Amino acid sequence: MAGHDGHRHRIIEKLDSGSLREHELLEILLFNAIPRRNTNDLAHRLLAAFGSIRGVFSASLKELEGVDGIGEQVAAYLRCIGKFYEIYYDAGERAFPERFDPDTFPAFLAGKYAPLDTEVLDFYFLDENQRITYCKRFTSGSAHQVVVKPDCLTELLVSDRKPYGIIAAHNHLKGPCFPSGADDVTTRQFQLICSIHNVLFCDHYIYSPAGIYSYYRSGRMRDISKAFSIGSVLSGREN
């Protein structure tokens, strides 16, 4: 059993090398469906039956179950992956814009938030080229508020996904889009946390059916960034 576990560990270590062959990739995938069994022979049988990984993922449940060693659960696992990729490629568009553009981003937010019936807070991660690489959503399931503790943002910024910059955006289900006192406090907290972790806090958007507010376009983001950077806070304490 130790030798089997060692083989799994060695082949997984090669994942990022680009040197794995089709049967090895399929073998790794099958680790999840068959945790305690050698999947090498099964990967070879699948490729022999269907010709390629594409053929494996295009096969029906009945066809998959016709391969020796493939039961109902493993067949369902492989078919689910195939269905996932069918949906992925048919979608034809990203869940959010590839790059952040201040001129078009509000329209994207309007389309995204208009159908919602609960308040949410999204953090969009940017790389140094303004590409949006990730979105983390927080929601309490309430129609009235969403609360995100400062340490939640801290955890995001120290994770492996650490961004170059972030954009915060949340929605009001009714009323004006102008920020409340609580929104101002939250924006200052986010700015300070980003400053501590050397991450650029680009903007905080607030959507409501009445419109979209941008802290940056209003001119307030610059003042908040200046007053609530770690340098300014430490300087104020020294004075």
TL;DR?
The chain has 239 residues and is an alpha+beta fold.
Record the SSE blueprint.
Layout: H1 2-13, H2 22-33, H3 40-50, H4 53-58, H5 61-65, H6 72-91, H7 105-113, E1 120-126, E2 132-139, H8 150-157, E3 165-171, H9 181-196, E4 200-208, E5 211-214, H10 220-227, H11 230-238
Provide structural commentary.
The protein has 239 residues and is an alpha+beta fold. The mean pLDDT is 85. It folds into 2 domains: 2-91, 5' to 3' exonuclease, C-terminal subdomain (DNA polymerase, domain 1, Orthogonal Bundle); 105-230, Cytidine Deaminase, domain 2 (3-Layer(aba) Sandwich). The relative contact order is 0.08. Helix 2 crosses helix 3 and helix 8 (150-157) packs parallel to helix 9. A 5-stranded mixed sheet has the order 2-1-3-4-5, with helices on both faces. The longest helix is centred in the middle third of the chain and has 20 residues, at 72-91. The chain has 11 helices and 5 strands. Helices cover 49% and strands 15% of the residues.
